[in-house]
Write a sequence for this structure.
């Protein structure tokens, strides 16, 4: 099963009831592809779409004092965007970049707002997705307080084993809040 049917099933599971206006949702989902290295959106520009990742890996990153910092990764069957920019329609502080070739769907801001005006259920789905994203961010922040870098790496591997195959060590280390050399030591220790 591919494409919009997976999205429908995911949203329906989140909603815990049938989606009444699925055809309205489906109509605003635009297929997109990005080669590895391309940006889905860039810092300094307003994020005008939320993306559903069907295949591939996207990273959310920022530049601070000339240093590239990976803040998040979106894996298959995740939604991603520069949420603060998308919600406020102001320039983003982060960029989204395809780590691998990415295919999925874009839902543009104006179309989504129109759908919200048309369907109370769509508004509810939007709220539930926002709540999920909040919980992801909360749990990530909490992990920095409660777990060591090694424990965070182990958790990342458990949740997304494809990480080591597709994401450069430098980006994984940045995401974990450590230097690449520290990640190399963690990986070496795990293999012994």
């Amino acid at each position: 099963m591919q494409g919009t049917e997976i999205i429908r099933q995911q949203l329906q599971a989140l909603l815990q009831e049938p989606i009444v206006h699925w055809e309205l949702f489906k109509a605003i989902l635009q297929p997109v592809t990005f080669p590895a290295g391309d940006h889905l959106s860039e810092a300094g520009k307003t994020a005008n779409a939320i993306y559903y990742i069907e295949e591939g890996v996207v990273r959310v990153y920022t530049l601070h004092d000339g240093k590239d910092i990976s803040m998040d990764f979106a894996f298959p069957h995740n939604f991603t965007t520069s949420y603060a920019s998308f919600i406020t329609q102001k320039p983003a502080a982060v960029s989204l970049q395809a780590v691998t070739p990415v295919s999925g769907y874009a839902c543009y801001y104006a179309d989504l707002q129109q759908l919200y005006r048309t369907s109370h259920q769509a508004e509810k789905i939007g709220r539930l997705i926002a709540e999920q994203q909040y919980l992801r961010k909360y749990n990530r922040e909490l992990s920095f307080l409660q777990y060591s870098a090694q424990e965070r790496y182990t958790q990342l591997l458990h949740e997304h084993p494809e990480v080591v195959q597709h994401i450069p060590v430098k980006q994984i280390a940045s995401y974990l809040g450590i230097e690449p050399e520290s990640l190399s030591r963690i990986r070496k220790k795990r293999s012994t």
User: Anything to note?
Assistant: The domain at 4-117 is CATH 2.60.120.10 (Jelly Rolls). The chain has a mean pLDDT of 93.
